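Next comes the chain:
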Amino acid sequence: MSSAEGLGCMGLSGSYGAADDLESVKTIQRAVELGVTMFDTADHYGAFSGEKILGRALAGRRDGVAIASKFGGAEMDDEGRTVGAANGRPEYVRASVERSLRHLDTDHIDLYYQHRVDPRVPVEETFGALGELVAAGKVRHLGLCEVRPETIRRAHATAPLTAVESEYSLFARDIESNGVLETVRELGIGFVSYAPLGRGFLTGTVRSTDALAEQDLRQIYPRFEKENFDANLTLLAQVEQIATGLGISSTQLALAWVIAQGKDVFAIPGTRTRRHLEENVAAAAVSLDTETLRTLSEVAADSEIQGARVSSMDVGIQL
């Protein structure tokens, strides 16, 4: 993870409204030009289309970049249909990595996450199989997403973890109080912040829930329900005020805050366009002084975010 930011590729497969595959490919390729070295996707993003787009975009550009992908968020058949809940069975792990390698058109995945923990399968069994994939050279490093500290410890004791990925931003700071950040630092595991812009909330591009497309994933999250969303605009207003005083955008301020949380914290903002990509990447050069960081943290803590971070449809997230 040599760059300060990676590129989260979830939105490139239509999770936040219609996506343009050609623009997605150009956005990924522009990210490489700008020095982005980590690209984060998953098998179920767009029912394999996310991996295929990334593989297409990185053709001839694979050297010097790292691909992160995920399996097991839901059980899928080879046609991309969801046929079950989170699956951590060793045989499914092995089948999933082979399928992802084909879709990504690569011989190895640099960082492979268990996307959601399967409550029916001990994590030791899943990571035993993942450790074998590392030994075989199909996977370089291992990770977990949205898990409790005890799950991190059990997995890490079975096959060493390189990263834990969870939502983290000024809009979602659970990991600071639930033991996750403390645990990964104790064990020397890196932390990857997905949705560092609060699923776009902190960019200020959406001022009303009426602006969300019908297929926009944010429609299922309590924080984006109208009453909660309107109340949460108080936080956005304060972030924008601070950003204006610094001569940067609220997007850049929010990203710079995440990046400033430590050298072991890595942000993967997502975007569907090259214009927003360039704005995001520029945030890596923003240096926030101690007073600004403290003010931002206090503003976020005092804003009393309304609405749950996760949806009842987020099966497998460990809270």
User: Anything to note?
Assistant: The chain has a mean pLDDT of 94. Strands lie at 7-8, 38-40, 66-71, 75-76, 82-84, 109-114, 139-145, 163-167, 190-194, 265-268. The two ends are 27 Å apart (CA to CA). The longest strand covers residues 139-145.
